[in-house]
Amino acid sequence: MTKSEIEAKIAELKMDYIRVQGDIEKLESTGNGVTKAEEQLIRMEKELKELNDKLAALS
């Protein structure tokens, strides 16, 4: 992956992360379970860390 591809993927993941956080707030306010959404956030955090590490290695 090139630096710009990594940066684009990071930006995309950040937007998805914000969306999922909003979904969790809606689920909690309606009394629904949030376990799956929280697991998705954890996966996204790991992927963001990996991408940031790759980006740092390229710099």
TrEMBL record:
Alphabetical list of InterPro entries matching this protein: SE1832-like
Keywords: Coiled coil
Coiled coil: 10-54
Name by which UniProt lists this protein: Uncharacterized protein
Organism: Bacillus aerolatus
